[in-house]
Design goal:
Elements lengths: L9 H14 L3 H13 L3 H4 L4 H4 E2 L4 E2 L15
Antiparallel strand pairs: 1-2
Helix pairs in contact: 1-2
Amino acid sequence: MSKTQPIRETCQLKELKEYYLTVRPNLRNYTLITLGLNTALRIGDILQITWGMVYDFERKKYRSHLLLTEQKPIKRQ
């Protein structure tokens, strides 16, 4: 089994974001990629974010902050 490596080149990261914004539009994937790049959160932590955490439905406006507790996976040896 081979290991995966992160994308380190800024131009490749921009191309990945652009792909999901214009070439094959998918707002969910674009948002996940952008949020991951800008926060350095793990995908498991990002996927726990709900609309209720982002948008205040009673006041009908977006929240200014999110409070997240990072969940680091347990490593078995």
